[in-house]
Amino acid sequence: MMEENKILATVDGLTITEADVDAFINNLPKEQQMFASNPQFREQALEQIITVHLYAKMAEELKLEETPMFKKLIASARKDILAQLAMNEVLGSLEISDEEAKKFYEENQQFFQKSESVSAKHILVKEEEACTAIFEAIASGEKTFEAAAMESSTCPSGANGGDLGEFGKGQMVPEFEEAAFSAEIGQVVGPVKTQFGYHLIKVEKKSEASVADFAEVADSIKANLLQQKQLEVYTQKAAELREKYITK
């Protein structure tokens, strides 16, 4: 475990710690933050922090703090920081209660419909004859579906016993979809011809169309309602501030 207070470098008496590197990485785009624990990436981040400090020292030596540009930038940064702090004061305490989220859920069931779906496995081969032979080996008990998928399927899912997971209508090519949704649970059907070749399909589970449980969607409801509430409060407060500070 990294020590946040561990000093990694010193620039003219100013120490740079693990915590400083963490803060720097946390301000990077999300796709870069995933490398936060990579030693080489952290070393690069440290080098960037050191370089910024070195240029800042150079600016001090050149007395750039006394230039009009510096003062203009400081004034602009001060305004932006104050505005952000004020917005945090206005919006930071807003929240959505369980009751508000549940009320929205109950009044808007149409948004939470789950379509009919199946969970299935398949085996894909190029030739119909090969597909039929595999079907017969499975039907006779010579091989399990999963073993046959691992041995013969040309689909990457073969490595996982042919497992395709759960899918709804419209996610697969029509011929495959029709066969999968028509099959009984546990039944192996095929050969089914598609543009990819010949399939054997085994349905593991079927789920009827339904409404998602509140627990499944509560977090997304709260996030959306909070965003709406924040926008409403933000707009209302902006109008109040216009009345207070803008002279007509």
Please tag this protein with its features.
single chain; 248 residues; alpha+beta; Helicase, Ruva Protein, domain 3; Chitinase A, domain 3; four-stranded antiparallel sheet; two-stranded antiparallel ribbon; 9 helices; 8 strands; 19% strand; elongated
Give me the secondary-structure topology.
Blueprint: E1 7-11, E2 14-17, H1 18-26, H2 30-33, H3 39-61, H4 68-91, H5 98-107, E3 113-114, E4 117-125, H6 128-139, H7 145-152, E5 163-168, H8 174-182, E6 188-194, E7 197-207, E8 210-211, H9 214-245
Antiparallel strand pairs: 1-2, 3-8, 4-5, 4-7, 6-7
Mean pLDDT, nearest integer?
A: 93
Give helix % range.
40-55%
Indicate the proportion of strand residues: 15-25%
In quaternary terms, these chains amount to single chain
Inertia-based shape: elongated
Low-pLDDT regions: none
End-to-end separation: 59 Å
Radius of gyration: 30 Å
Structural class: alpha+beta
Number of DSSP strand runs: 8
The CATH architecture designation of the largest domain is Roll
Largest sheet entry: 4 strands, antiparallel
H-E order: EEHHHHHEEHHEHEEEH
Strand sequence of the main sheet, in spatial order?
A: 5-4-7-6
CATH class value of the largest domain = Alpha Beta
Number of domains: 3
* CATH topology tier name of the largest domain: Chitinase A, domain 3
Q: Output the number of helix runs.
A: 9
Structure description:
The chain is α+β, with helices and mostly antiparallel strands and 248 residues long. The protein folds into three domains: 1-66, Helicase, Ruva Protein, domain 3 (Orthogonal Bundle); 67-112 and 218-248, no CATH class; 116-208, Chitinase A, domain 3 (Roll), CATH 3.10.50.40. 53% of the residues lie in helices and 19% in strands. It contains nine helices and eight strands. The two termini are 59 Å apart. The mean pLDDT is 93.
